[in-house]
Amino acid sequence: MQSELRKKLLDAFTNNEAEYLSGQHLADIIGCSRTAVWKHIEELRKDGFELEAVRRKGYKIIKVPERVTADEVRLGLSTRVLGRDIHYEETVDSTQKIAHRLANEDAPEGTIIIAEEQLLGRGRMDRRWHSPKYTGIWMSVILRPNIPPPKAPQLTLITAVAVVQAIEDFTGLSPQIKWPNDILINGKKVTGILTELQADADRITSIIIGIGINVNQKVEDYPEDLQAIATSLSIECDKKLQRADLIKLILQKLEQLYFLYLEKGFYPIKLLWESYAISIGKYITARTITGSIHGKALGITEDGVLKVEDDSGKVHHIYSADIEL
Fold first, then answer.
1. pTM for the complete prediction?
2. 2-15 vs 34-46: helix axis angle to the nearest 10?
3. Which domains does the chain carry?
4. 152-205, pLDDT tens digit by residue?
5. Per the annotation, where are the binding residues for biotin?
6. d(C-alpha 317, C-alpha 249), whole Å
7. Positions at the binding site
8. What's residue 128's pLDDT?
9. CA-CA distance, 274 to 272, in Å (whole number)?
């Protein structure tokens, strides 16, 4: 009950961002006493929110804490589905593990799991993902699309476009996508996306999308073996960024593209994805489990499969591989 009252309180501030809200007005919105409103205001202050109280005008949030708690993300979030249910943890093994459990417990579509730190963060092929505390965005999203299981990989590409658009708008940087799930800035990796499927033989029960973004790391925060290949948004734009604001923008972009996909199919997403792709038109090496394929990247199919034309003119369809430019 308490978390629901706090959610209503933050929604009230979100919907009246430029205004002061009186204790009585907040009590009417939330459905509690003015004393209870005051207690919730004090709890927000203890959690790092700065609120201004003006006699005969009321309360106004003037600063939020530099964490990515559910309260921070919820304040100002304008999505209809994504992020309406938020699970926040300081430290976890992996947000994906929690998302799988919550999905099995019938968590609603759009539920997100956010952590300040992952001890066992991972990417494709169970590679370790470096996820230090208070520096990045470590998040998983639960979706429940009514699509056949073979189309699930398309959600990785949709998410990549959403993250690129959000980073572009938020920082002014020009990120690019390396098929299938890496986002690069100036040739260095800044984001990884991991899509996992829960499904029966003929239907999807849930798709769990893990998003890891290096936001405020400094060069010295990376192990030596990663410094040459990884970067952060802060390194690239030379300033510290508000992670919660970026999360909100990502959720908004992802929701827009997700609804577009459900309504219009993959083709509009395909065109957007190819416009951000770093490899289209370039010679690449695709290292698959059966060997390496060298050739020119032509684009992706309607199913999100990478097309590579080798020197003999044969077009290969790449379903899973490591790509080297």
1. 0.81
2. 90
3. 2-63 (1.10.10.10), 70-276 (3.30.930.10), 283-324 (2.30.30.100)
4. 999 999 999 999 999 999 999 999 999 888 999 999 999 999 999 999 878 899
5. 118, 122-124, 189
6. 33
7. 118, 122-124, 189
8. 55
9. 6
